[in-house]
Fold this protein.
Amino acid sequence: MKDALVATLIEEYSTVEAFASILALETKALTAVSPLEQLPPIVEKKTELIGVLARLETARDTHLAELGFPAGWSGIELAASADERVATQWKLLQKAAERARRVNANNGELIRVRMEYNQRALKALQVSVPRKTNLYGPDGRVPAYSGL
């Protein structure tokens, strides 16, 4: 039973590392001038890996229950205190998850800054001008001047 738990922890670690790699690609895309072409496959892969991580967490909780431990954080902590192999894999997984969390938080900040910049740019483009001197309408066309 503990072998199955250790195997699941190893697979979780591997998946979190893959997720962190995708987050690193996302960082590069978010710092590019035009990230729109790069982001959809990154988001797709992130979504896939989140699904795998959810499945592995469920499997870990099942293994914990089979070993007589509660589910979740408290259960894995108890299992780790009872078995060195579990403890080693759990520590590796925690470190990888923390690295991924930091990169993800950084990406969130990059997105926030980009959104803020875009909002300021939109405001600059929407400067109030007198109605009769509209340069162009919302459709991008210059309206016919009817003031003559």
Remarks:
- The radius of gyration is 25 Å.
- Residues 2-126 form a domain with the Methane Monooxygenase Hydroxylase; Chain G, domain 1 fold (CATH 1.20.58.300).
- The mean pLDDT is 90.
- The helical segments are 2-30, 39-66, 72-82, 84-125.
